[in-house]
Write a structure and sequence with these properties.
Length: about 500
């Protein structure tokens, strides 16, 4: 096993980063490749090879799926920490994802819905643990850590670019199930290279990070087994028609349940976590950021639903005689992420040198407002569609550009805020709680997209106007409160710096 602190074989970073970079790139290729065509497949007519679902049902299912992917990261991380270790979690999660995409390539409605459930389980096992293993490549004082995550994040976006282009092209040129099959091939390539190079990963990823007794381990496996059996029974009964599930109603109840769980857990830590006054101020600042995050993703995740449908039905996609595949428009976000990330990283550094750095709350507010402004662009595009025409591709490209700028203002900043402002003894739990905001935002996004009615074009401007007004309005409120919470953030950060200096002296 190579000494990770001396290993600089991958662009000055440990060789294990190459293994994780490639694995995540191919996993994201499969995930985003399917995400880009999911709603299109469900709403396509039966004679076109689709499922023929209504928009409101398809987008509700989309919201449930994307929300579940994020939510399942919590038990996925728990399984790795206590039962199998990060390396095995990545491997088994990848195998599940690949096998499920193979099943999805089979033209069968029942296998499609079973596949969605299993993809969420596999992704929940792989995604949080591969991110955690990246951090294990570096020592606590290794200055390469942030740059390593930046390289890893680049792999995510390269993978999504490949997924959108390959699956989007195959969808329209060869058929839906060839596109799903391509996602399986992508995950398979990731698994092959992971198997060949996994020895470059740190030994700490081989075993669980939390020691538990044999009895606790057996009990944990029993609980997991009972959950899987219950899930299989409910799925079978649903497919047999014994149980009837209304996707829209289920999505609404899920949104309420996730929001309630977030509030209860947050309140439990705040009131019963033995926090001092400074830590409670940090919790209030984090609550503001979590609200901004949930609202942000409820708008941003329109990319795979309402904006995807708009691209298919109401956008002029022709360049000369070539028609741009619908899913390709979603790749614009990944492209802008790759191009703009270095500029934003340099911008925040220069801003900090020239003036007082904006607080986390202010930065996330800017992200939410900028994302909301992208829907103002879509209001104009929707008016063109309502008038009987097709809007230029420029409208969608500009919208995705603004969404990307908003993402770069909010997403990495919010993650940094959680690591800086959380009470140290609740760091892991607060990061898990923050992931809840992705799930809440995704499920709300699916419900909002249900208002996109292809048969009632005149209502489209109102949908985009509502999302824009809501996002910008919440952003403005976060901005105002953020001016006060910035002082709380500074108190928390300064206190942590003092405590770290004391520990270093000892």
């Amino acid at each position: 096993m190579t000494d990770q602190t001396k290993d600089k074989s991958f662009f000055g970073h440990p060789k294990g980063l190459q293994t994780l970079f490639m694995t995540e790139m191919w996993e994201r290729m499969s995930y985003y490749g399917m995400r880009g065509i999911l709603v299109l497949f469900m709403t396509a007519l039966l004679q076109e090879g689709g499922l023929g679902l209504t928009t409101i049902t398809a987008t509700a299912i989309y919201g449930l799926y994307t929300s579940s992917v994020y939510f399942m990261g919590l038990p996925g991380g728990w399984i790795a920490d206590r039962l199998i270790g990060g390396k095995k979690a990545i491997w088994y999660g990848g195998i599940v994802i690949m096998c499920v995409h193979i099943v999805l390539a089979i033209p069968n409605e029942s296998s499609f819905f079973v596949g969605l459930i299993l993809v969420a389980l596999g992704t929940g096992l792989l995604k949080p643990n591969i991110t955690a293993v990246v951090g294990q490549l570096y020592g606590s004082e290794d200055e390469r850590r942030d740059a390593g995550y930046a390289i890893y994040y680049m792999g995510i976006n390269i993978g999504s670019l490949i997924g959108y282009f390959v699956c989007g092209y195959l969808m329209e040129s060869a058929g839906w199930h060839y596109a799903f099959g391509a996602a399986a091939v992508g995950m398979g390539l990731g698994l092959i290279q992971f198997y060949i190079t996994h020895r470059s990963l740190p030994e700490v990823s081989d075993k669980p990070s939390v020691a538990i007794s044999d009895s606790a381990r057996k009990k944990s496996w029993s609980i997991i087994g009972m959950f899987l059996v219950a899930l299989a029974v409910v799925t079978a009964l649903t497919l047999a028609g014994t149980i009837s599930i209304d996707a829209v109603s289920l999505a609404e109840k899920t949104a309420i349940t996730l929001s309630a769980l977030f509030i209860i857990y947050f309140a439990f830590i705040y009131f019963f976590g033995n926090l001092d006054a400074t830590e409670k101020k940090g919790m209030w600042a984090l609550l503001l950021i979590c609200i901004a995050s949930a609202c942000f993703w409820s708008g941003f995740e329109q990319a795979g639903s309402s904006l995807n449908l708009f691209a298919r039905d109401y956008t002029d996609r022709f360049i000369s005689t070539f028609e741009i595949p619908t899913a390709w428009f979603q790749s614009v976000n990944s492209f802008f992420i790759i191009v703009l990330t270095p500029f934003f990283a340099a911008f925040w550094v220069k801003l900090g040198k020239r003036m007082v750095t904006p607080g986390y709350g202010l930065k996330t507010a800017f992200g939410l407002i900028i994302m909301g402004s992208g829907f103002i662009v879509m209001v104009f595009a929707a008016h063109i569609a309502a008038g009987g025409g097709k809007s230029a591709a420029f409208f969608l490209i500009l919208t995705y550009f603004l969404h990307t700028v908003g993402e770069l203002c909010l997403s990495p900043i919010a993650l940094s805020a959680v690591s800086k402002l959380s009470p140290r003894r609740y760091m892991g739990q607060m990061m898990g709680l923050f992931i809840f905001t992705y799930s809440i935002g995704s499920i709300i996004a699916g419900l909002l997209a249900g208002g996109f009615d292809p048969d009632n074009v005149s209502e489209m401007p109102s949908l985009f106007q509502f999302i824009a007004t809501f996002s910008i309005g919440v952003g403005a409120i976060v901005l105002l409160i953020g001016m006060f919470s910035r002082k709380w953030e500074q108190e928390v950060v300064e206190r942590k710096e003092v405590l770290e200096e004391v520990r270093d002296e000892k």
